[in-house]
Amino acid sequence: MKLESKITALKGIGEKRGKKFAELEIENIGDLLNYYPRDYEDQSNFKLLYEADIEEKATFIVKVLSVLEDRRIKRNLSITSFLIEDNSGTGKMSFFNMRYIKNQIKIGEAYLISGKVTKFKGQVQLTNPSFKILSEKNKFGKIYPIYPLKKDISNNEIIKAVEQVVDLKLFEENLPAQLIRKYDLMDKNESIKNIHIPKNKRSLIKARQRLVFEELFFFQLTLFTLRNKDIEMEVKPYKLESEIYNFINNLSFKLTSGQSKVVEEIFKDMTSGKRMNRLLQGDVGSGKTIIAIVAMYLTFLNGFQSTIMVPTEILARQHLENFRNILEPLGVKVELLVGSTSVKNKNRILTGIYNGEIDILIGTHALIEENVEFHNLGLNVTDEQHRFGVRQRQSLNVKEKSAHTLVMTATPIPRTLALVLYGDLDISTIDTMPPNRQKIDTIAINETMLDRALVFIKNEVKKGRQAYVICPLIEESEHFELDSATEVYEYLKENQFSDLNIALLHGKMSNDEKNEVMEKYSEGEIDVIVSTTVVEVGVNVPNATVILIYNAERFGLAQLHQLRGRVGRSSHKSYCILYNTSQSKISWERMKVMTDSTDGFYIANKDLELRGSGDILGVKQSGINTLKISQFPRDLNILKYAQSEAQNIFKNKDSLEEEEKLKLKKHILGNLKIDVSILN
Ligand code: ADP
Ligand code: MG
């Protein structure tokens, strides 16, 4: 048996099952052993109901006996509770605002549940506990792996396959021996074995540590390698004409010190003779757009074309207007290419781009999908990067390898993490805000204050201002009791806002419909927009002064911060109202972070603390799905060591023994086979 042997070489896996495994991207034994559990069921450490103490966090194995309650208590509060029992007695578990839970929990089945214990008349009660159906008990002694699954393949089936090969020591050690010694790392085969079938908790931790280290070490090494080879590409250096400084001095405002610093960094890149690869971070409203405009104008002065890619059509249209206002008087030709551009227009624009008549192209991802051929593309800007994957960011570059790249994002990322996510980019930060910005007053409310909030909004409208009401995404497949945009819209139109101009905006509308609503809104013909998060990024309507966010607990803090950034864009006092329909303590803690601070970096860090990294930073979205096992902020510490060791090795690569060098090389490319191609 080898790592390359087909999965069908295993007992119990024929052609048909083999296809099912292939759907999980498990085709050979190596894939199988690299398919790590997503979780573990620790059956070694559970309590009996009668032993549990108040305030204690504990895990129980219980049988669910019956549904006790399933009803609405108030407009925005429902309860679903179950009677549970184990060998020591009975208890109760309750779920708030999760009525779909009734379809998930099966009466008569055994579950592993964990949560904080409260007691009522001596009986144990758990509120919103985490739960999972109990798998086969005590199979591996005490800790049982849970694999990510798809339909038609069971956890046990994977375990049975893994068991057949996990002791064969099929891997060669891929980390340098000196690092294994220095950090007392578990060896490769031992850690593979323990990540699947842990001997005990300690060996699971050691195994995970080693695999995380390995993953981050090779990831960093790959980034250093790529950066050195492909990314630092020689290009014709730009000239800094005096016109560019005239342009900056004649803007309707003076650049902030943070903006000026970044402009200089960009100028330095563009005149260096190497291709620029820069990430620009700057909080919502810090003024990133003008930086892009300056860089694009310099590109124009040097005789090159440039593009800016944005995540939504709404934003693309807004940029078009803004760019034309500023640049067309200077003879720069700006055009827009989006999904809804008519065929006739599209052909005209594609021709103009091809023969060089058009200088700047603004677009959505239609830009990448279209076969746009540039006359001479010099700069490629991506705005609000967190909405795009690395894959998309890179694919434009693949076409025009020599074009400078500027990626702009409002999602602040702690520096160490930024190095992982954007290790191939230099980082600039705008650390100042334009002057005279009013602080946005933020409050968090529950359902008892909703009516007052609506009256408040109405009063703002009477003063001539406008408002946003934001609702979570409409997801019909989910049975969450969320106030969907359509429902809230209907309700407000019939009730509190019956005498206002109110409109609905959501992602399922056509682009033309969306544009029409946004246009009317920016011209002040609409007072209140009820919307899903399509307005999240970049939209600029300075007269809007209130934003009310329904089910605020459903949003990431970084996202709430983005949404809040839609207001406070003029000298009018602005407000953000977070309507939290959850009772949970953590949701109120998260609201408090928002009401306490308007600093995007502080908020992002808190969000990390309270939620973990994955979904906020969009590690997946960023295309870095090679990170199979590392998680942030949990593994930041390991990252630091892995990073410095990788750096060390990279610096001293010439003194490495030939054999060691070959081994590392093989794993740099082998380990990261999926993403290497998109990183260059
Ligand atoms: P973001 O960084 O969120 O993309 P924008 O570029 O949209 O921010 O800028 C927000 C607003 O601030 C715009 O109306 C812009 O014209 C204005 N602005 C940008 N820089 C300055 C400045 N230095 N002084 C005053 N206003 C500025
Ligand atoms: Mg912006």
TrEMBL record:
Gene Ontology BP annotations: DNA recombination; DNA repair
Entry's family note: Belongs to the helicase family. RecG subfamily.
Job description of the protein: Plays a critical role in recombination and DNA repair. Helps process Holliday junction intermediates to mature products by catalyzing branch migration. Has replication fork regression activity, unwinds stalled or blocked replication forks to make a HJ that can be resolved. Has a DNA unwinding activity characteristic of a DNA helicase with 3'-5' polarity.
Origin species: Anaerosphaera multitolerans
Enzyme Commission number(s) of this protein: 5.6.2.4
Signal peptide: none
UniProt KW keywords: ATP-binding, DNA damage, DNA recombination, DNA repair, DNA-binding, Helicase, Hydrolase, Isomerase, Nucleotide-binding
Protein name (database record): ATP-dependent DNA helicase RecG
Domain Helicase C-terminal, residue spans: 449-609
Catalyzed reaction equations: Couples ATP hydrolysis with the unwinding of duplex DNA by translocating in the 3'-5' direction; ATP + H2O = ADP + phosphate + H(+)
InterPro entries named among the record's database cross-references: ATP-dep_DNA_helicase_RecG, DEAD/DEAH_box_helicase_dom, Helicase_ATP-bd, Helicase_C-like, NA-bd_OB-fold, P-loop_NTPase, RecG/Mfd, RecG_dom3_C
Cited SUPFAM superfamilies: Nucleic acid-binding proteins, P-loop containing nucleoside triphosphate hydrolases
GO molecular function: 3'-5' DNA helicase activity; ATP binding; ATP hydrolysis activity; DNA binding
UniProt enzyme class: isomerase
Pfam family membership, one: RecG_dom3_C
Residues in Helicase ATP-binding domain copies: 269-430
